[in-house]
Amino acid sequence: MKEKSNIEQPQKRFSPAKSIVIGAVIGLILISLFVFEVDKPKAEWGNFWKVRPLIIEPIAGAIGGLFFYFMNYMGSKGAVNKTMAFVLGIVVFFMMLWLGIVAGLHNTMWN
To answer: For residue 68, which of 15, 25, 82, 89 is within the disulfide window of CB 3.0 to 4.6 Å?
Structure first.
């Protein structure tokens, strides 16, 4: 008869690339809610004013997603408390989304 081992099986985790893509997609969806609702943009914004927020926000979301992955990785290794790592990862992710919105919409909708 085989004896069961008490060794914990490693949990499958997201890869850093997957976390980056998820963060970028969340950022793109979020900024799209703001950008595509504008029917008549002001003339001083220029013709291609939508390009800047649609590039900056996914980059900010990707950075936030990478930080979230890093904090979950550190929590799973026991370097920091798992709950504290998760909460800090969520807070920084939302902070990055907010900063991406501010930077992307600066001098257009954010004035």
So the answer is: 89
Mean pLDDT in runs of 10 for the chain (111 residues)? 57 81 96 90 87 95 96 86 92 96 88 65
- Helices 51-76, 16-35: crossing angle, 10 deg rounding: 140
Residue 83 domain-assigned (yes or no): yes
Q: Which helix (H) or strand (E) holds 51?
A: helix 51-76
pLDDT at residue number 42 = 87
Q: Which two tokens stand for residue 46?
A: 């220029």
| pTM for the whole structure | 0.82
Q: Is 38 a domain residue?
A: no
Q: How many degrees, rounded to 5, is the angle at CA 57 between CA 63 and CA 12?
A: 40
Q: How many domains does the chain have?
A: 1
Instruction: Give first-to-last CA distance, the chain, whole Å.
Output: 72
